[in-house]
Design goal:
With about 180 residues, the protein is of the alpha+beta class. It is built from one helix and eight strands. The structure holds copper (II) ion and zinc ion (ZN).
Length: about 180
Amino acid sequence: MKFANLLTSALAIAAFAAMHAGSLPSTEKAKDTVVKAVAVLEPKDDSGVEGTVTFTTEHGGLRIVADVYNLTPGKHGFHVHEHGDCSAHDASSAGGHFNPHNKKHAGPDDPERHAGDMGNLVADASGHAHYDRVDDIMVLNGPDTIIDKSVIVHAGEDDLKSQPSGNAGARVACGVVEAE
Ligand SMILES: [Cu+2]
Ligand SMILES: [Zn+2]
């Protein structure tokens, strides 16, 4: 009888210890969760195009806010590309669109699309484009994170359907996505 009581206590202590130990790694993990990232866009091939893109985790998705300057008026393809490398003069080092699940190129509101498809920036007569939307595919954490990928702005319009990249033309600005 005494032994049985002892065994029950030992089991209870072991269970408590296991629960407690289990709570420690999740606290550590929460500390490492990225909630905001920024890409500072630098001009490519002397385009003069520059700006900033912020990615902020919000209830319901990832809020993307961009302000880009010195564009030609009109639409400009706007994507997250697969490599966080803007070093080439034409930003070819950034590779293709970020596409971790092998989907087809499309628009940002299409359920089937590259994760990096953000559609178009629309520049006004002064060359300024403001972009603000909440995305439900892109994430800052886990295997599909956009951290250490790059944001590219194109010279032309993304038609949201041509494969593999919307026929948006040259790359006029590039910035690596960095956690804040
Ligand atoms: Cu692109
Ligand atoms: Zn795409």
